[in-house]
Amino acid sequence: MHPSLVTSLSLLSLLFSSVAASVKPPSLDPWYSQPRNISEYEAGAVIRSRSVNTKLEALLTLPMDVSVKSVVQYLFRTTDSLGKAAASVVTLIEPRNSDPTKLLGYQVYYDSANVDSSPSYLIQTRNETLDFYEPDFGMIGAALNKGWWVYTTDYEGLDAQYTAGLQSGHAVLDSTRAVLKEGPSKGLSNNPRYALWGYSGGSLASAWAAELQHSYAPELNFSGVTLGGTVPNITSVTQTINNGSSAGLAFSGTFGTAKAFPNMTEWLNQTLIPSKSAEFYSIANGSYYYANAAGANKDMFSFFKGGERAFLDPVPRTVFQLSGTLGFHGVPVAPLFVYKAVKDQVSPIKDTDKLIASYCAQGARIQYQRDLNGSHASEGLAGSVDAFSWVSDRLSGNSVNSGCTTKVVEIVSLDPKGASLFGKKLYAALS
Ligand SMILES: *[C@@H]1O[C@H](CO)[C@@H](O)[C@H](O)[C@H]1NC(C)=O
Ligand SMILES: *[C@@H]1O[C@H](CO)[C@@H](O)[C@H](O)[C@H]1NC(C)=O
Ligand SMILES: *[C@@H]1O[C@H](CO)[C@@H](O)[C@H](O)[C@H]1NC(C)=O
Ligand SMILES: *[C@@H]1O[C@H](CO)[C@@H](O)[C@H](O)[C@H]1NC(C)=O
Ligand SMILES: *[C@@H]1O[C@H](CO)[C@@H](O)[C@H](O)[C@H]1NC(C)=O
Ligand SMILES: *[C@@H]1O[C@H](CO)[C@@H](O)[C@H](O)[C@H]1NC(C)=O
Ligand SMILES: *[C@@H]1O[C@H](CO)[C@@H](O)[C@H](O)[C@H]1NC(C)=O
Ligand SMILES: *[C@@H]1O[C@H](CO)[C@@H](O)[C@H](O)[C@H]1NC(C)=O
Ligand SMILES: *[C@@H]1O[C@H](CO)[C@@H](O)[C@H](O)[C@H]1NC(C)=O
Prior knowledge:
alpha/beta, Rossmann fold, 434 Repressor (Amino-terminal Domain), 2 domains, 10-stranded mixed sheet, 41% helix, globular, binds 2-acetamido-2-deoxy-beta-D-glucopyranose, AB_hydrolase_fold
């Protein structure tokens, strides 16, 4: 290679990394601060906004070229799990050659009680000490290349209240309000079709949004909501993953929930064994990968006085019932597509079967796909082709039948339809 080309390339990469490095993590970035007069704002109102670099590192490192025309972030008002005004952040991405009538809210599974794992930050800069949600960002890239506008919400809020269902659902609904209100000034249609999608932790936020929508944001009209690797019952998830490879999530989930409720913050402080408290918080406050590595195969209950029985105390019991269990706050109005591995080893299939049966008995419209093959991790990819195709149908305005259907599938390899949906490059990389 010609020496001057080498020089300009390394200059370019220097320039590029200095741009990325100048993005501050939320814990150090005053833009993320909540205004004192937060309760003066209406739910969904924008408090401040900023344009960010269109070179989103999370998308640049995908095995595909992703079309991005503009990226704007909004700090908006939402409602926390106690019903109090709180702020959160949403990132709205406009693709090149966009179809302004199509809008997808994609909730990524950040699965961390650390605010520096928020998608608004990690989508901008691949911070190697933190996380990188490759499969989710792949779907976001594919959606943008279809010309859809995409928004992704820091649904855990400014305090990273991981698994706090009420907070997460409210934040998704209010970010939708904010995007529908502000988007048209950026070129989004005044009346777009819009849908939600999320897998695992992202399905938690999306499902809570779907369940709370009728009571909390009755004016919204989602064309559809796609939920994969559903986690309807956090108590059951905690019992299931404890002592296993995903046990770190139990630490983060317990901490994330506790942050949302003063009585549970107090309970955690009182009930952790003092000599083990520092280790608990170090795992619980880590990024997804850090918590997974540091918490793997640990018995989270052994950090508590009384062990697992401590979680039967009134405080954790009432809090997990209130904000960790789906099925008690309403019935989704929007049609749902739900995909789930029968052998999901993070959230038992029976919890999802029960939730779907309950929603269906109350008039929901659900296509439920149970995959006899695969695990919690592999179903994210295995189910993605059907999920994408279903979202695409909804954004095109195709109607769904009323009532519920359950389909049993055995997905052993990625459906070839994925090549046209995701683009050949991404499909090849995922296959
Ligand atoms: C990455 O995140 C860590 C933890 O929040 C932070 O200390 C560090 O400054 C970040 N690095 C960059 C390049 O932003
Ligand atoms: C909140 O306070 C800021 C700074 O004083 C002010 O600019 C803003 O208008 C206030 N917002 C509302 C909704 O009252
Ligand atoms: C919601 O949108 C669907 C199409 O996506 C439409 O058929 C329906 O009439 C809308 N409902 C309301 C209340 O606007
Ligand atoms: C949630 O899981 C816990 C623990 O397995 C169980 O006791 C509880 O009944 C479940 N809740 C629902 C609504 O299924
Ligand atoms: C509980 O909080 C007090 C006061 O902040 C602190 O000194 C103590 O270490 C905490 N206990 C545990 C188990 O975290
Ligand atoms: C968790 O990490 C964040 C950001 O790195 C930091 O600001 C916060 O103080 C930490 N909290 C605990 C309890 O360690
Ligand atoms: C977790 O594993 C430990 C041994 O490492 C065992 O003593 C404990 O009973 C297990 N706890 C549960 C809830 O399975
Ligand atoms: C803990 O706080 C939540 C939220 O205010 C409340 O619903 C729950 O009943 C409380 N639990 C107890 C045991 O007081
Ligand atoms: C798929 O699942 C079915 C039913 O459990 C099983 O018979 C089959 O061997 C599985 N195939 C693969 C490739 O895992």
